[in-house]
Amino acid sequence: MIITLTGGTGFIGRKLLDHLRAAGHEVRVLCRSPKTGIPPEVALFLWDAMEADPPLESLEGAGAVVHLAGESVAQRWSPEIKRRIRTSRVEGTRRLVKALTGLDSKPAVLVSASATGYYGDRGDEELTEDAAPGSGFLADVCREWEAEARKAAELGIRVVTPRIGMVLGPDGGALAQMVPPFKMFLGGQLGSGRQWMSWIHIEDMVRALAFAIENTALEGPVNAVAPNPVRNSQFTRTLARTLRRPALFTVPERALRLLYGEMAGILLASQRALPRALEKAGFTFRFPELGPALKHLLG
Ligand SMILES: NC(=O)c1ccc[n+]([C@@H]2O[C@H](COP(=O)([O-])OP(=O)(O)OC[C@H]3O[C@@H](n4cnc5c(N)ncnc54)[C@H](OP(=O)(O)O)[C@@H]3O)[C@@H](O)[C@H]2O)c1
To answer: Which residue has a Cα nearest atom 29 of ligand 1?
Structure first.
């Protein structure tokens, strides 16, 4: 199958690209500028989601489209960065769906990323896909982002919006930020440590995206998280144990807010998301528990 991938140069996208190609698919990548490290057999198409509609030739003939592109949220949120986070996702998805409207033959499925940020800050509540959206900047962005993707369903396209949790991978993402302080004996829990963290191993993340392409039973929002979320205090202890380092400190909430501004909300928000839709459709996790997942990635 031909699969068109946006964000194929990113942390998740690069791994997905390899996975899809290994499964025999022809993958096309949409990106803002040519990137090193993309295999020469992969067709690259230039697209800036904030500026223009994607080129139709990148989508024509594709059986599936996976849309991962978006300005990174892991940076200090100035008003301009917030505009970029929202516009790249909401307007970018609108432009992508508009382009799908103009195709002679439409893809069977659009898998368009969202995030567990959809749920906002929810304490101990167990969050399955039918939970109400939360409040705050990221929750609003996710709601609008998903709404734009859903419009592709009016074209007869199956739409899946994976609400992605914190993806744990060996070379990037959140773990790359967390490990150095622990290695320097400076690791510790964030704030009260009571907030739930919905995580997923990168291998399961990529498998879940491929599963969403293939499995026609999946439609709509899908929590892309491991079945066993943990509190930040447990995450901290498990990471420290895996790295054979102590976790002696607590980073106070006030320090996080001083350091990261509004973005600190991501580190402090509690999301206890459960992968009900994936499990119901028969997906099995290779890394359902945090300890073995971290050992596999860091051990
Ligand atoms: N990683 C996680 O833990 C996590 C958690 C929840 C949700 N997600 C969501 O999943 C998607 C993929 O995540 P990721 O970690 O792979 O992200 P990433 O590494 O930051 O990659 C995202 C890609 O989006 C493109 N991009 C960046 N800024 C852009 C902008 N302003 N306008 C248009 N395109 C832009 C870039 O591609 P080019 O430079 O090639 O254009 C980049 O490779 C994102 O939408 C993210 O919000 C990720």
So the answer is: 71
Which ranges in the chain belong to alpha helices (H)? 11-22, 79-101, 137-150, 173-183, 202-214, 232-243, 253-260, 264-268, 276-280, 290-298
CA-proximal residue: ligand 1, atom 40 (nearest): 31
pLDDT at 299 over 90: no
Count of the separate structural domains present in the chain: 1
Domain interval for residue 38: 2-167+199-227+272-286
Asked if the structure places residue 149 within a domain, the reply is yes
Which pLDDT belongs to residue 203?
A: 98
Query: Is residue 186 one of the residues assigned to a domain?
Result: no
For a mutational test of ligand 1's pocket, the pick from 12, 145, 222, 266, i.e. the residue with the most ligand atoms closer than 8 A to its C-beta, is 12
pLDDT band at 35 (very low <50, low <70, confident <90, very high): confident
CATH number of 122's domain = 3.40.50.720
Interstrand relation of 114-115 and 2-6 (parallel, antiparallel or unpaired): unpaired
For ligand 1, pick from 164, 199, 206, 266 the residue to mutate: most ligand atoms within 8 Å of CB. Answer: 164
Residue 92 lies in a domain: yes
pLDDT digits (tens, 9 = 90+) for 168-225: 999 999 999 999 999 998 899 999 999 999 999 999 999 999 999 999 999 999 999 9
Mutate to test the pocket of ligand 1, among 81, 116, 167, 200 (most ligand atoms within 8 A of CB): 167
Residue with CA closest to ligand 1 atom 20: 72
Position in ligand 1 atom list of the atom nearest CA 173? 1
Return the structure tokens found at 81: 């960065």
User: pLDDT (tens digit, 9 = 90+) per residue, 156-165?
Assistant: 999 999 999 9
**Domain annotation covers residue 242:** no
Closest CA to 288 of 222, 200, 175, 208: 200
